[in-house]
Amino acid sequence: MKSNPVYKREVTVRARSFRMPLIILVFNGILAVVALLNMYSAVAQVRISASVQYSSFLQLYAFVATLEFLLLMFIMPALTSGSISGERERQTLELLFTTRMTPKDIVMGKLFSALSQLMVLIVSSFPILLLTFVYGSMDLMDLAFLMVCFLVTAVFCGGIGIFSSSLMRRSTFSNVCTYGILLLVVVGTYMLNIFLLNMSQMQIAEEIYQLGETRPEASSGSAVYLLLLNPLATFGEIMEKQVTGGIADLSIRRFLGNGPDNFVIRHWIPVSILVQTVFSAGLVRGAVYFLNPLKNEKK
To answer: Rg (Cα) of the chain, in Å, rounded?
Structure first.
């Protein structure tokens, strides 16, 4: 990326602008306020009960990590959804095509410059996440695993943004398309599984079972595998492994019932990370295709 002119220009412009320090200040300010309020509540509970509840500090970690995850999922599309469409609006995209840079160089330069900015936010939030380390509740491996999840999610959301920006000619339409796709993937897959789970519960409730016959557990069926594409589901599983009862509502276990315990279910986190990475690569490839001015001549 150091030899990519688009990447160097974008990083330099963002580093010199007032917007970057402001984003870091607001981002970490929100996390710090939430973390300190939760820590004050945990300490006050210790004073009242005269006993230390380590679960309170674990919940502090889960709450701060969830808030940071949601902020990153909201910020990354905003950094990429107008990157290429903005060049079209400023009528500077054609100038980039007169250079030796390929559409792939332009797309990768835009994507990795936004990713670099997001990595600055992630690294700057370390002191807040490390508050729980004071009480010995988490270790560095947990933090490293969380950082991998943040990075994959950032690439996933950035891929959606850069694809929409390459496809649309206006940044407004690109923003709507980006957040629409993200809403469909994140919220839509969950709502579909919840709907199918409720339907399964209703069907089981209407059936009549013999005395001593085991009543089956409700499940959403094969639709649960759609959650492999959902970064929030992956994050929820990581929190479940790191914090007991971390985010029960996001866990896939509620949708499984007594379904099969196969390879995908047993290795849900690495499989979902792989699926999201492949999907992100496909989006970037699509962005390069739609940005290529010679694509119609190849047909």
So the answer is: 22
